[in-house]
């Protein structure tokens, strides 16, 4: 670092809802800071979602600090454009000191204890680093993709926009988590022939016994449960989210019903060799396990209703509407009619720019509600940072306040005037 480095007490890396929430609470305390966003604020919501994307949680759960949802449909599910407008409203309220289009390339601690921050627009120093860039950085595409014929169009879920984007022909969607299940549905509803390689993602009902399942779970205190209270402890952070949708007012996603309607289901895609796609023989087990989770959540709601004496209509538990036949473990690609593949198997984190001893063997940060063992390094916006809603609009603001309280304590009682020129 040179003597011309600009200093700021707190550097926030990432300008999504997490970084903006930290900025909100820092401004409330008059603590000087700067947000670095390599694209534009809330970039991913506008550019990395498909056209029909919508929230899978009801709008009333959107509660960014000082900016709760106040639209006309609290029990609905905002579509992509509405989400972007909601975030624009939050940005307008926060008025964060932000450098958009500036990428943070490296952060490391100097011998004097201050952090050096190398960016695409010069050098900075900071007393505190808040990592608000999320955990979904590098799209996962398996090495087998390199062996597929060049005639097959391949995209990742973050590149998918709509069915017309793909060439004519049948589509293989790989992965049945939230993105995979919803993209498969999007293609299916558009009349495309879909092949779906099913993973181990669980599912849940959209509505049960007269209410949205999210509302029941909120009443049951599920969203207040901390990671330390969860039966899986830290292991819950690796869980795949349940698939469900808010599309068209909200409904279940039932892969068995899709199969009845012409979608072809397989087990996990394991390889491509000798011209054939190779699938694991786990389809029935995966579907059964997803339904077990679905009915288990509903059974917990039944218990809550009974214990609290809540008036609610009765409803039967789910029974399978389709069962797989003889497992298909090999599919001749050339003869299948498949012309495109959408990879929906997630992302890996990439924190290589941060030189700090805060990561485990898998490259994931070790922390307690965002606070790491290295003073001055904090994380925000990660799944289950503290509760289920930590990576979502519902609870990220509370986590941000917790992180900022720790920062304020470390910086001392002195207040830093907002002097950073942006």
UniProtKB/TrEMBL annotation:
Gene3D superfamilies: FAD/NAD(P)-binding domain
Family matches, as InterPro entries: Auxin_biosynth/cation_transpt, CHP04046_FMN-dependent, FAD/NAD-bd_sf
Keywords: Oxidoreductase
Highest taxon of the lineage: Bacteria
Single GO term (MF): flavin adenine dinucleotide binding
One Pfam family recorded for the sequence: Pyr_redox_3
Descriptive protein name: FAD-dependent oxidoreductase
Classification of source organism: Bacteria, Pseudomonadati, Pseudomonadota, Alphaproteobacteria, Hyphomicrobiales
């Amino acid at each position: 670092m040179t003597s011309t480095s600009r200093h700021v007490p707190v550097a926030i890396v990432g300008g999504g809802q997490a970084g903006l929430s930290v900025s909100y609470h820092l401004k409330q305390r008059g603590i000087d800071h700067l947000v670095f966003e390599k694209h534009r604020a809330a970039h991913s919501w506008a550019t990395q979602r498909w056209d029909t994307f919508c929230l899978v949680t009801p709008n009333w759960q959107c509660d960014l600090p000082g900016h709760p949802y106040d639209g006309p449909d609290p029990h609905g599910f905002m579509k992509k454009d509405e989400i972007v407008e909601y975030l624009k409203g939050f940005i307008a309220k926060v008025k964060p000191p932000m450098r958009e289009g500036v990428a943070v390339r490296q952060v490391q601690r100097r011998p004097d204890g201050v952090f050096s921050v190398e960016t695409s627009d010069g050098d900075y120093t900071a007393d505190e680093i808040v990592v608000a860039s999320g955990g979904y950085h590098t799209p996962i595409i398996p090495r087998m993709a390199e062996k597929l014929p060049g005639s097959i169009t391949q995209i990742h879920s973050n590149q998918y926009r709509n069915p017309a984007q793909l060439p004519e022909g049948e589509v293989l969607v790989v992965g049945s988590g939230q993105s995979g299940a919803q993209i498969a549905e999007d293609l299916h509803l558009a009349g495309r022939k879909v092949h779906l390689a099913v993973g181990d993602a669980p599912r849940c009902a959209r509505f049960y016994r007269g209410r949205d399942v999210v509302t029941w779970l909120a009443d049951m205190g599920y969203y207040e449960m901390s990671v330390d209270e969860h039966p899986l402890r830290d292991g819950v952070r690796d869980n795949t989210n349940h698939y469900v949708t808010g599309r068209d007012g909200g409904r279940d996603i039932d892969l068995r019903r899709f199969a009845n309607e012409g979608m072809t289901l397989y087990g996990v895609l394991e390889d491509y060799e000798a011209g054939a796609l190779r699938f694991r023989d786990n389809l029935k087990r995966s579907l059964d396990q997803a339904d077990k989770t679905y009915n288990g959540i509903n059974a917990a709601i039944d218990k809550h209703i009974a214990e609290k004496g809540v008036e609610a209509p009765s409803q039967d538990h789910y029974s399978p509407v389709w069962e797989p036949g003889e497992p298909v473990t090999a599919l001749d690609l050339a003869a299948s009619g498949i012309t495109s593949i959408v990879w929906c198997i997630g992302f890996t984190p990439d924190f290589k720019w941060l030189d700090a001893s805060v990561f485990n063997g898998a490259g994931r940060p070790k922390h307690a509600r965002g606070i790491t063992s290295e003073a001055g390094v904090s994380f925000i916006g990660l799944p289950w940072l503290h509760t289920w809603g930590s990576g979502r609009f519902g609870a990220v603001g509370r986590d941000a306040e917790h992180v900022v309280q720790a920062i304020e304590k470390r910086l001392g009682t002195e207040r830093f005037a907002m002097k950073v020129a942006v």
